[in-house]
Input
Amino acid sequence: MTDRCTRIDARFDAGFNNVLLMMRQFASEHLRPAGLDAERTGEPLPVEHPLFVAFNKTGMRFGMNPNRKKKKEDDGAPKEPSRSSRMGILAAEELAYWDQGACMSLPGPGLGGPPIGLLGTPDQKKRYLKDPFVDPAKPAWGAYALTEPGAGSDVARIRTTAVKDGDHWVLNGEKMFITNGARAEWVVVFATTDSSAGREAHRAFIVEKGTPGFSVSRVEKKMGLTASETAGLVFEDCRVSAEQMLGGRDQGGKAGFKVAMKTFDMTRPAVASMSVGIGRCAWERAVHVAREAFGPKPKTPREILLSDRLADARRRLDAARLLCWYAAHKMDHSEPNTVEASMAKVYAPRAALFATSVAMDVVGLAAVNDHLIEKCYRDVKIFDIFEGTGEVQRIVLARRLFGYPSS
Output
């Protein structure tokens, strides 16, 4: 256990400390070895990997109840804010520290959980957030399909279509870079009912595995996060019941673009925190290598320069962590957090990339091979890209802070 983790833990009650310690033990014993297994094979972890059953046996269920019921308050008593987002931020950093690729492959609803929790009907929540995940011996996954060829950061440009046909909708289009897309029991799919109407015509549908017309086109080969499965999905005259529209057939536009953006407000602080975890892993390993190679005190100008850069990396990681915590704090207090979520997302991945770059320079000067630092360097790059690129976050901040137009 690092001193940094100990200080973070002290900010929360003993109950969550115990949960975090359990995560730490599980991650060190199972998550990192599984991630290194995937590195050796060059393939995502297979669905039968023992990691997944071991994870289910712990009782941890990420994303199982994003629309949790709040305790009733006494008359006149102040409303107690949630702490689940802040706790989730700490968990995200801790698990990413051990292996984010393996963490992303763990069973659960994944990114598909928050939109169903936000706008799903009671039947949809039971059917997709509860029923598939009750058997600990049978790992199951959900997924979230928004990105398309030509429509990644610019969500308004999605071209997957949804055409009403009686009591069904017919989906046609292609999605790409979908986490756990090939193994998921169901996928939340975003489509447009009118390509000329932009985001106002966006709708979301829950498409189950095995639905005719729904297929997996490929599983991607990636430079990092090897343990995580990233798939392309294809919809060819895929018919889904009107009841499969997120929120039910009467939800209309409420379950389209706005719920996608609300999902990002919830998840971007966690994604930013994951990058901090990877950066912290590389930083701590680099400090260890530097002490082993250079002794307790740097001597040459190059060693002194690297020591200064390591200190700079630590400052950046600490600042990034605080941005993540503040965004989660606002969410727990039911306050708008779009600005804070974007600030965390735009800053933390760059801070983590800087930390891993410095770590690579340290092992280079020390003339040692360190596969863990190399892996962190490859793994962290994607965090400046997915769930909204750094460039998109800057646009979001410009619009919110300076009143720039949205189109």
Summary: The radius of gyration is 22 Å. Residues 360 and 373 are 7 Å apart (CA to CA).
